[in-house]
Amino acid sequence: MKTKLLLSLLLLSTYGMAGTIKIAVAANVSYAMDELKKEFNILYPETEVQVTLGSSGKLTAQIKNGAPYQLFMSANMKYPNTLYTESMTITRPRIYAQGSLAYLSNKKQDFTTGMELLKSNKIAKIAIANPKTAPYGKAAVEAMKNAGVYDDVKSKYVFAETVSQTVTYTVTATDIGFIAKSSLYSPQMSHFKEGIHWADVDSKLYTPIDQGIVILKEGGKSNEVRAFYDFILSQKAQKIFTDFGYLIP
């Protein structure tokens, strides 16, 4: 009888951690997501993590319109705070990482000139994520304004929907682009060299990009969602974020 009870509890536990979770994820996290999912599935091999990528603003709009996401990983704290204020989450927003901004070119550039580089005649097009919906785009605009070059180069902007799309534009259609530093840590980007093709944007020029996570009401009763949420805030996940160029506050 005792053996049967233990077996039943084990089966219930296994069943409770088997299934699918649906998460909305800011585009900049896409480069680290495969590694995060891999490590999570070592702990919970029966749980499938379905990821929808997009700009934080557009994902928030989808959530407000009833999209069945269970967890939201934003590129800043603004959107999770909005959802929390509107009682659409079951957890307070928490910072899981801080993003860093870099600029990238597929041609050799003199990054020692800093933001003045953008005013060069050799730079005709600048890729940037839509600052209205993408926090990294907003940070890029803030950095250029604080550096005093915004008005001089605003005619050069080519807007992308997300920061990951900005990477595509940067390497295929523009002369330089503002990207999430995390993108530079993917294997496909290894041929771009620091100081030659890319450089950090001075972090003093933009507000720290605190990236926030919340469990949405749709995921409130899911053990799997809670497990993934706890994993993202764990030391193991934070090590992965660090490996992909993020800061841990």
Cα end-to-end separation: 51 Å
Strand content: 15-25%
Question: What is the CATH top level name of the largest domain?
Answer: Alpha Beta
Q: Please give the count of helices.
A: 9
| CATH topology title of the largest domain | D-Maltodextrin-Binding Protein, domain 2
Mean pLDDT comes to: 91
Unreliable parts? 1-16
Please tell me the CATH architecture of the largest domain by its name.
Answer: 3-Layer(aba) Sandwich
Number of strands: 10
C-alpha-based Rg, rounded: 20 Å
CATH homology group of the largest domain: Periplasmic binding protein-like II
Q: How would a textbook summarize the main sheet?
A: 5 strands, mixed
Tally of distinct domains: 2
Describe it.
This protein is an alpha/beta fold and 249 residues long. The protein has two domains: 2-98 and 208-243, D-Maltodextrin-Binding Protein, domain 2; 100-201, D-Maltodextrin-Binding Protein, domain 2 (3-Layer(aba) Sandwich). Helix content is 37%, strand content 21%. The protein is built from nine helices and ten strands. Strands 2-1-3-10-4 form a five-stranded mixed sheet, with helices on both faces. A five-stranded mixed sheet has the order 7-6-8-5-9. Strand 1 (19-26), helix 2 and strand 2 (47-54) form a beta-alpha-beta unit. It is globular and about 55 Å long. The termini are far apart. Residues 1-16 have low confidence and may be disordered.
